[in-house]
Each structure stands twice: as C-alpha cells, then as structure tokens.
Amino acid sequence: MKAYRHAQPLQSGGKGRFGGHPIRLTIALIVKNEEKTLDRCLSSLKPLLDAVPSELIVTDTGSTDSTVEIAQKYADKIINFDWCGDFSAARNTGVNAARGQWFMFIDGDEWFESTEEIISFFTSGECDRYGSASYIQRNYVKPDSDKQYGDFHALRLFKVYPGMRFRDIVHEWIPWAKPLKLFNNYVHHYGYAYRDYEDRRKKALRNIPLLKKEIAEDEFNLKAYYQIGKEYLVLKYYDEAIKCGWKMLEIEKSHKNKIWRLSTMHNIISAYYLLKKYDELIQITDGFLRDNPEPEIIYLDFLYFANDAAFRLKKYEKSAELGERYIDIYRQYKSGKLDESMLLYADFSFITEKSRQRLILTVIWSYLFQAEAAQKERALPLLDELTVNAKANNSVYTVFFSAAQFTGRWEAIQALFSKALASGEDDSRSKFIACTEKYITENSAYALNAEDAVASMPEEDPFVYLNRLRRAENSGSRDEALGVLQWFLDNEKVWDDRVSDVLYFAMKEKINIMPYLLKIDTDDLKYFAAAMGRAHSDFTEVTLGYFSAYSFENAKGLYFTVLTKEKILLSENGLDDGAYMELFESYAVETARYTRLLFRREMFQQVNVPALPRAYRFGYYIGEALDAKKRFDSTAYLQDLRLALEAYPVMAKPVNLLLEKAAKAIESKKAKADEFNLLAAKVKAQIESLIAGGDLKQAAGITEQLAKLMPHDADIARYRELTHTQPNMAELASGLPQ
Description:
Oligomer: single chain
Mean pLDDT: 89
Number of strands: 8
C-alpha cells in the first residue's frame, strides 16, 4: 500500500499579479451547529478579508441552528455537504472551489486576536518567498477561563499547488511546501476545553476507530499511529500508548520518517513519565538520543521529562547531566539553529522560557545536593544565568539563598537584588525582601551572612540600610546603629511595614520614636506593630521596657502605644497573671484617653455611642468603667465592663478577669455583710434581753458600742429611748460655734 510520507510539493507558478490566480487568498471553513462562536470567528477575519484580495468559503455539514444565516453575512460562497464521516472530504470542497493563490483554513470555534502580521505577510509580497505558513492556536484548558492554555503552531496556510488535497478522515492535513513562515498571530480556541474528563474521553473514543480504519487502509500511515497514541494518553491508557508507539517505531524502521518517529517517541516518553516508570524513562531517553544525536527541538521535552525523573529518584548527577543538555539545546533553538518545522508535529510542553527557568532551578538543586564541593560550585554559573534572564519569583530567590548557604558565595544574592532594583518593578523588590526576611527568620545559623550580604551593597535602598542597622545591632555598634536610624529620619518615602525594624531598634535603643512615628501613615502603624511582634522574640520585653521610660500625649504616639500593648496582650507573651493585668490596665487607661482625644463630647452621649467603631466603643466603655471604679460604683463598673467586652470581644481574656475579680469582691463583701448582720442580730437580742430584765445601764452601754457601727439603725434609736440615753439636743446645740 501507498505510504503516507511527509510531502514537499512543488509550488505552482504562473503569470500575473497572483501567480495566475484571480485573487491572493481563499479562506475556508467547515461548520456544523456553531452559532455560539461563528460570528466571533468570521468577524475576526474581516480585517484580513478587507485588506487582502480574498474570498471566504463556508462548507456546512448539516447545521440545524442559525449557523448558515450567520455565515451568509460574511461568506462569498456557502457549500452544503452531506456528512460522510470524512473530515478531509468536507475540507476538500473548499479546496475545489478556491480561486486564491494561497489557501487558508480555520475552524468555526476559533477567532483571531489580531491578523496584522498575516495581513502584512500578504500585502507586502513577503508571501511570494514562502510555500506554507502557520499561526498559533491558543488552546484553553477550561471552558470559562482564559488563564490556563497551551500554544500550538497550527499549519493552516498553503501556497496552492497542483493536486493539493486534505488527507485522512480525521486529524486531516495537507502536505506542505517549504519555506515555512511561523506567525505570532494567534487564535483563541476552546475546542479542547472540556467541561469534564468524560467529554474529552468521548471524543477520544470516537477518534480511535476512525484512526484504526486509516491504518487498515494503509499499514504505513505513521501519522495515524501517532494520533492513536495521543488519544490513548488522553484516556490514561498509558500502557496502550507505549505498545502502540513501539509498534509504530518497528514499522518506521522499514519506512523511515523522522518526523513521526520523533513525535511517537514523545508519546512513549510521556506515557512512561505518567506511569512514574522513571528508571525506564531515563534509559529510553539516553538510548534514543545516543542513536539520534543530531539536536531537535522535540528533545527539549524528552530531556525535561528525563531530568525531572532523575531528580525524583535522587540521581542528582544524572539529573544535572540531562539538564545541562536541555540548556544547550534550548540555546540552539532560541538562536535559530534548529529546524522549527518540528513545532508542527507534536504538542510541546517544555519549550517556553518559563520551562527553561524551572529546569535550571532543578539543575542547580541537583548540583547543590551532591556531596562534592566542586559539584556545588557548578551551580554558580547557572545562578548568573538566572540573574540575567529569569523573572524572579519565590522559587528563584529560594535557590539563590540555598546556593549561597551551600557554597559560602553570597555575591549572587547581591546581584539578584541589584537586578530587582534596576528593574524598577516594586513587585520584584518586594519578592526579594519577602524571601530574604523568610530566609533570615528560618535559618538562624546563616541569618548574619544574609544580612551582611545585603548590608554590604552600595545601593541607597531602605532595605540595604535596614540590614546595616541589624548588622550594627548584632555587633553592638551603637554609634553605627544611631547613624543608620538618622538616615531613616532624613529620607522620605521609605516608611512601610518592611522597615518596621527601624522602630523596633529605636525602641531598643530607648530613643524618642515620635519623629519616626510622624513619618508613618497612621493606618500603617498597626502593620508595623504586627511586623515587630512577628519578627522579634524579645518584642514584649523591649516594648514594655520602652514604655516604662516613655509615654506620649500626642495622639499618634498614644495610638502606637495602644497598638503595641494590644499586640502583646493578644499574643503568647509569657507574662504572669499579675504582669498581664498590670499591662492591660495601662492599656485600658491609654485606650480611653485616645478615644476621648479623637471624638467630641457629643459622641459620648448614649444615643451616639453605638455609632462608634468597635475599638472606640471599647475605649469609651472601658473609660467609663475606670471612672465608676474610682467612684466605688460597683454596679456601673460591672455594667460598663460588660459593654466593653461586647464591643471588643478580642479583649475577652483581660475583661473577663476583671469581671471575675469584681464578682469575687462583691461576693466577699456580701459574705462579710451577712456575717456582720448575724452578729448584730445577736447583740440586739442581748440588748433586748437586758432591757426586759431591767438592766438598763448595761443595755445602754452595749447600745452605744453598737451605735458606732450602725449609727442610722432604727433599732439603735429605739434602744436609746428605752434606756433613757437619747442624746439631749439642746446640750448638743449649745456646744456648736455661734
């Protein structure tokens, strides 16, 4: 039977403006029930149709919706085709009717973002130097999202030649002519964005019998073997994909075709990787590349899989070797030294700059995890390459710090930060700072090295000066520390929570922090307090020591005092109950003062208080409770404490302790009152017994003793009357000053 080999057809010639053709371009589609996407597809073609002498042919294969009506608004010709289960037959209706020098096909569920590059290709005459062209098909993963996608070079434009036809009943294609033009223009395509795995599975199960039919008609149809292997991968029939692949390669030995050999090997290696048969994958990759040493773009995917497999097996020497080969081939690819037509024959996963960066990270780790110091040193040139080319992210920063730690070479850290600063992107700077802070926090043994690396940089950046401050504090150089603190006072626009340590060290040095607070936006103060608390284990000790020496009447200083004390109260602070409640009481006083500073008196009327924000309602009620306590008004005190707790539940612990203490005091007072009343009742009974027995003198004496304790008691007045010891009011009055 006839073999399906890759064709290199002769280009047609002819006299006239378009090589003997009446127009430059024919665009053709086959459609069926595509009313949801067709208008968007055809409207995206209109700029191209308007700019280039062209025609649009639409072949309908049996639509029952409004597809044909939509097509009529744009198409020069509509062909009705009775579907026969053969995609090439349907496509060839457009080829047969085409009048253009060039033929382009597109699907109804695709639409161009822009056709400017394609327009220029035709209007400039550049097309005369090429035989075929490819645009990018951007295949989205999810139906309702444009975030995840893969780009594929779809061969869709051909200079027409005699006998040009689509081939194969599914995954139809046209043999193409070199040279090949690769466009950067792309179409959006959701045709592979399935709502669930079952939808994708149904399509794969539909395609496999059609592909097997093609093989039955031509046992050397290598492309069909490759496509079946792809469908098996979709179905997760990995063993079947491997078996199909090896069978195809056996057939290929007697019917050599490099393109489909490489594409099929891609299926095989992918299947081994997905089966996690990493040792076999590495052996197969090594053997294939040894037998086929001439570099190809598709080797990038082979090597990426093999590199990752070796790394997972902790075969770090092998992982580094495979990764270095990937890097070398990638350089050749980007410099245009490799045949790019291979991009048309496989779904590549790892030929992007992002993939290269991920692989370089793996190679660096592979060197760092080896025992020999010389191997660790081999990671450093790759760090330089990342510094120059890579967009920094957390993974990049992490490997830089680890490499510095393993090799003792911290210069790369400085180069990375210099690059982040030179980019002018605050996001890059922020990520570097975040990673540095995380590293310093989690790697105490190397924290000083990281601090010193940044502190030694010449850049006039707040983070550089912050690390100089840390270095000075760690070395006990107070003069240097004070000099750096002054730098922060002298420089504007450096005050965000990433330099919270400036406040911390100023407090530690017990200098007046009010000038620093005035430079910080009030809304940011809470982030400073939180950052200091997270970063320093002695935050409680430093803060309490500072506020024992300094207090603020200024509203901003008072607010910062409240924030830092609140941070301690709500953290694992190590304070005993006595010190904790002493801190809370000072916090309560300052919170009340701050609240009264902020609001006019009218806001503290009962009708207005509920309108206050929670923290300030708490400030109001806790202030009222403190005032009630001074008046010995226990009822109001308890009521205001409960209202304070309701307003600000985060302070439940200390407020509940106060409520418990007040309740115990009231209970104790009541118990003492009950005991006194019981004793008083006994004394009264004794007095009444003495009066009844006529012993008025003794009764009078006891009455006078009891009167000192209960001067307003009604029984005392009655006892005095009965014992004739009622005070003589005239005598008392005569003793008063006239």
